[in-house]
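Changelog note: in this version the structure field was regenerated for every chain. One regenerated record is shown below for reference.
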Amino acid sequence: MSGLPPAGNTSGRDSLSRKHRRGSRESVLPPAYKNHLNSLFKEIEKEFTHLYLENVRLKEQIQHLEKSNPDREKEDDTDGFDINVIKSFTKKNFPKTRHKLKAHTSKIVSSFKASAVSCSFVREFKGHRDGIWDVCVSNVNSPLVGTASADRTAAVWAADSGRCILRYIGHQGSVNSIKFHPSQDLILSGSGDGTAHVWKAGALTDSSSHSGLRIQSSEESADSSDDGGDNPGEIVLRGHAVSTPLVVLSGHQGVVVAADWLAGGEQVVTASWDRTANLWDVGSQVLLHSLAGHDMELTGAACHPTHRLVVTSSKDTTFRLWDFRESIHSVSVFQGHTDSVSCAAFSRSEHIVSGSDDRTVKVWDLRNMRAPLTNIQLDSQVNKLAISSSGMIAIPQDNRHVSIFDISGAKLTRLPRDSRKCHMRMVSSVAWAAEGEGWRSEANLFSAGFDRLALGWKVKSKEETGTGNGSKTRLKEGTY
């Protein structure tokens, strides 16, 4: 979350510096002040990174000691506790307190051991020069992963190899969202330049013949707010570069934070900081409806996979359901969060799942919006979540964690952080691969964060892992 926020809209959530980078291109601060602040933020970032790595190293040492000492309970888990505090609970000094701590910790760890889901790291997708805002998947011709970055580029990757096979460089601002067409080789992206672009993916293949080209950061190298890597000049995206869009949708008066295909793939919805969402016809590039009503900037928009339904989320603590199944559309307002609603998404049944800066995720029934069916309490602000076809909710958070719950609110697992193959900064977005539709890649969950990485994960039920026959165990969710 480090780096100097560029000029732009000054409202937003707690993490102002990173949120404003979605739409800003130039700073109004004098260069001397900006350079000084940049240097200070970089030092702070380095300190936090060193502290985090030291914490990981200490935890690994503790785990090693526990395995080598048969007298220690193996269930002890120090995650979330200050290591110096735990060291102070010795049998000599605080026997009762230590006993209570170990008992509580054992209960927590036991709950995780009872999980019916296992997670493992598969591969990383590396090459962006700035944080990644969004991630999506496609299986139209082959398993593909798409990423949208604050470095003003979008990228398409082969899910099996992690190789970048296409780069889109047509936007003039941060690329905030990306979405594959449900049935064609088309990609929709939304940007801080106030537009949404439709561009052709073409005949994408996983080839090693692409030349490596350096991608410029979202700021010039001297002014970049996020160029503090060890060898930033060595980070490249390899792949065919596309700079010309097929369609440009311009009409918003602010940053476009989200864009999605309406069911059928002939129309798209865009959401903006100008407090409106727009429904467009892609073929004619005509604005069909301007969806007004939110009192503050929009944070996202999502479409139902099979019905003409749209949900928009906003900083005004509400989200709205727009129904275009009839000639005259209707709108319903969902209230219940106490802070900015950062995202809302449809399940494949009659549910909407919303996430908020109030550190909760709520599950709602589309047929009865008066109160949520489920309330999930978390430890950090929620970013763009995703729901699998079997009803698992992957929840990315500002605290670098991704938790997985079922639709009833029961915690299934959390993506592992025991190795260095994990996110080092906030996780901004997640995406599930479609189950039962010929997905051929090992990874079926993808996460993206502001450490400039997208990661692929294998999430499986214990029954599936045990049998090894590839059968899917569906989780219970309403009318699934």
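Spot check on this record: Helices lie at 16-19, 31-68, 83-88, 95-113, 462-467. DSSP finds five helices and 31 strands in the chain.
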